[in-house]
Amino acid sequence: MESFINKKEGKTMKCPYCKTELKNGKTVLTFQMDANRIVVVRDVPALICEQCGEESIDIEVSKIVERQIEKALSDGIRMGFIDFNTAA
Q1: Pairing state between β 22-34 and 37-49
Q2: How many independent structural domains does the chain possess?
Q3: 3-state secondary structure of 43
Q4: 40 within domain boundaries
Q5: Which domain holds residue 32?
Q6: Helices (H) and strands (E) in the chain, counts
Q7: How does pLDDT run across 41-65, given as a tens digit for each residue?
Q8: Residue 49: which residues within 8 A CB-CB, separation 6 or more?
Q9: 9-18, 43-52, 57-66, 71-80: which range is least confident on average?
Q10: Could you tell me which residues come within 8 angstroms of residue 50 by beta carbon, excluding any fewer than 6 positions away?
Q11: Which residue, 34, 37, 64, 72, has fewest beta-carbon neighbours within 10 Å?
């Protein structure tokens, strides 16, 4: 995925909590769909605050993750790991 720099203003985003600059990184998202279904998506591109650790996911990344989860559930996966870049 591309950098999360605000292309309109050419500025990086700030953490909504501590106002520190957010840096590009990766995170892990865990989805528990019900008591018997858990899917983990690894290496998800995110903006991460180096000060407080707050993580933010771009809307386009969220849409990709949503499709990955829907596919995993339609494939009947009850528990599993998805690598974002491999499945994207």
Answers
A1: antiparallel
A2: 1
A3: strand
A4: yes
A5: 25-45+57-87
A6: 2, 4
A7: 999 999 999 999 999 999 999 999 9
A8: 15, 17, 18, 20, 22, 23, 55
A9: 9-18
A10: 20, 21, 23
A11: 34
Residue 64 near residue 45, CB atoms below 8 Å: no
Length of the chain: 88
Site of tokens 């993750």: 65
Mean pLDDT across 13-28:
93
Would residue 6 count as lying in a domain?
no
Judge whether 15 and 54 are in contact, CB under 8 Å: yes
Structure tokens at 26: 């990766």
Q: Considering the domain boundaries, does residue 67 fall inside one? A: yes
Q: Both tokens of residue 88? A: 């994207």
